[in-house]
Fold these 2 entries.
Entry 1:
Amino acid sequence: MRLAVDHVTRYRFEAPVYHGLQRLRLTPKHTSGQRVLDWDMALEGAKREVEYEDHNYNRVTLISLDEGTREVVIRCTGTVDTADAAGVIGRHAGFLPLWHFLRPTELTRPGPQVRSLLSEFDACDERLPLLHALSARIGERVAYEGGHTDTETSAEDALAAGHGVCQDHAHVFITACRVLEIPARYVSGYLMMDDRVEQEAGHAWAEAHVDHLGWVGFDVSNGICPDARYVRVATGADYREAAPVTGIRFGTHGEELHVSLAVAQQRMEQ
């Protein structure tokens, strides 16, 4: 499948910014099941400083905000060929050992909520069926509903609230996997919706490492393993390591953020 992506992130500040840096994880790479045909990043109110690969092997663009700017626009456009591999990414690669994805983070630290969830499962069960069952149960325990959580919500808090979005589903799944001693990581990217092209945000899901298969994706929110409609952009131990945009700025605290995203299938020439 050939997917065309048009992703615009716009920041408007209540006062001029005199200094700011942002790390952008907005560039997908060639990986199992996807091939990037073209990708362009255009900036307004900022300039590119350097590009590098971080410890998670993500492509990172460091930008500096123009002094005195009150608006920054980041527009990414590109085309990616994808294939359906039933969620299987394959062998582990990159700069980090697998055990790195067993350690808890602030957002994936287990507590009584996660342990209660896991009491329903037998850790000795075969891995792949266990992970599918875990994904389904999390979808039942945490109803998909916005407005109850944010980027600082932990897996424990999402389970306690009983509501959340794709980010929360991924964190709960990752946390539970790590308690079961299964390496797991967070994935940020894009999903082509079946019912619309225009979207308000990107998507997130999780990957768990399964013996003899390698990394396997699980989209708890949609109850499936990622297929050809998905574009992987960044991975990390949790949201903070795979977030599309992170950074600092000085000169103003108030901001207005607007995101527009279009993901559509593009006709492939024969």
Note: The longest strand covers residues 2-17.
Entry 2:
Amino acid sequence: MGAGKTAVCEALKQALPRSVFLDGDWCWNAHPFQVTNETKAMVMENICFLLNQFLRCSAYENVIFCWVMHEQSIIDAILAGTDRTSCDTKVISLMCRPDTLRQRLENDVRSGVRTRDVIARSMERMPLYDMLQTEKIHTDDISICEIVARIKTL
């Protein structure tokens, strides 16, 4: 949260040919937001179903997906639940320094986009990203266009 996932994915969708973008948050947009074993299983099924539909659709050449995936088990479950036999998969973590993250999230809180509790949760999860088996791209001090250009070279 706050590293630039959505902004980068929206720009990547425009930069790549025949692209579709799925944000995992769209598969779990509920009020009240409830984290239970049942809702966690449901969102994983929703994500895998939609990704598989996009992957099978000949209209799309590039399927872009983002979500807060701070544990390798989340990434592994999504990879296992999708049919990627005819595609090349890139797994990327967007990261930033703690001061950058705090500033971005505080700006979002001030503008009403996020609630204050997101700051502590995001800061606590930061060390977990170093352990993921992903390509790491640091989003500090570079533009969205530069991040997209780096992703396109992978």
Note: The chain has a mean pLDDT of 96.
